[in-house]
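User: Please work through this fold.
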Amino acid sequence: MKVLLLNGSTRKNGCTYVALSEVAKALNAEGVETEILQMGGEPIRECIGCDGCAGKSRCVFTDDVVNQWIEKACQADGFIFGSPVYFAHPTGSLLSALDRLFYAGGDAFAHKPGAAIVSARRAGTTASLDVLNRFFADAQMPVVSSTYWNMVHGTAPEQVKEDPEGMQTLRNLGRNMAWLLKCIALGRENGMEPTRAETCQRTNFIR
């Protein structure tokens, strides 16, 4: 079993990385492999709704990391998306990446557990979690919870490590993710496969 953790921060080893690393340690302790994907400072194109990805599981834009991440997502069993909070929402680059990941590669995420974590100096955390959790809801993904909202506070990595309840929440998230992954694997060993969703109906509100 493997979980991909996506660092939506331009700071490779900043607060969000510390938070994701804490989740990864808990997953590793439960025997789950992890990989942290770095957004970094490279430009990320936004989705333009061109439908050029239809039936291809690839985005038409090939000059950034999105298609590489779709390929990795196909081989992963679970996902954790992390973002810093600058202006009461996740980073624009992360949202652009997620729009294209789910639009072009949605099949790679369906029925696989997901969770979001955020880091902030003070406020905007719950609003940011709400935005990120919507990706899971639209892709038939079980959302993994913890013992509090998945957030840490601090303006520097050292301060995040001094947020004991935040770090505890992330460790519990990792353990819950590992538990659910093992439950899914056990179910499949006993013939339990994901349901097949209806997709034929489409409502247009303006006719």
